[in-house]
Amino acid sequence: MGVTNSNKVVNATRIDCDGSLGVTLSLTAAPDIITNPTDIVLVLDRSGSMAGTPLASMKAGAKTFIDIIAEATGGTGSGQIGSGSGIGIVSFATNATTNTQIITSVDILKNAVDALNAGGNTNHADAFTRAIQLFDPQSTNAKVIVMFTDGNTTAGGPPAPVAQQAKDQGIIIYCIGLIGSDGLDVNALNMWASDPAAAYVAVTPDAADLEELFEELAQNITKTGATDIVINEIVNPDFEITSMETPNYGTADMLNSTSIRWSIPELGVTASESALLEFFIRHTAQTQGTKKVNQSITYQDAEGNVVSFPDPTVDVECEIVVNPEECPIPVDLNVEGCSDAVLVDMGDTYLESLGRIIQMDVTIKNVCPGKRVALAVILTEVDSEGMEYQRGMKTVTIPAHDAPTCRDVLVKCIKFVVPEDLDVSGDAEAICNQRKFKARFIAHNIDTDYRCCESEFTL
Is the pTM of this model over 0.70? Predict the structure, then answer.
């Protein structure tokens, strides 16, 4: 069968700047279909959401799949699938239908696919039940279900127990998913598919990709297991690789902070096998947004298997930074000529401090979108007896953010001036002595519209 599935998944869809996530590469290979005859049931979704382009793309993919199996088993000239293998067709909407038994006639199989029409709900449980019923329990052939669907279960019972029943009988389950108009529960596909799910599930948002997914699966099913496998992974420069687990097959080496080479001498030569490699990466750039996890990934083996890996992304969100106080506006100064002394009138300036300046940064946790926050900061100085003396209080209004979820907000540059003549925590006679302070922070959502306080001055 060659390489029957390849996948790349990440364990998070969103991280913070400087955040980490896990990446799993998986590869499944199985013996040649001629020496390992295989009965395959194509389980095809014909629910209402498949109408139009999705149905046409699925039909093209299924017929390409049939042609590739026929050619690989030596049956092209006779129009038959050869070498003891066969294909059956089950389609499903509100209920499932057995469109053909497991047969060898290419024409009958293709006609059954062409006759499918879209309409109705989505009953995955009945589809699995019908597929299981097509297999001969006495047959020694390998047994494979290829489940294609574009939506969530909307009719019938829960599919997971029926899929588990199939796996308990030794049936291999592959799932091809199209993210259709009604959405798609990828976790459900992972639950139905053979273990490890990452190696048996392929998902696309584009119907145009369906023929390629069916073609790749069929081409790999027909080949022998893979040998002399080399996978080169380079992650996006916005990330660095921090650690790597030992793979269950072969060896993996970290070439540098962004590159991994995974080598597997052989996989799936005598039986179906799945190889997994897990590594961890950390975001190191200062920019946020939707980031591709890998820059490139290449595959090669001695058999020439055609293998491609998904291109997962992660949303990186950096902290919101608030600067409540602006820096002073500079005044330009030009000094010209060779005079020993230069007199320049720089205009007016305003008193900024009478001593040291304490500048604080603080992060307010879990600020939800659309909510302004009032932040109060209280600074006290502590004497040798533990008594506290107030040195200042400030209040800051934090503007609302429009991020999709609650998140942390970093408030920078909260400044206090602490006069030297008020020193109670050190030696008042010394210069630059150590002083002890305490800072307290109080933050609350502002639930009503902000209004400036009215002020009245009496002279």
Answer: no
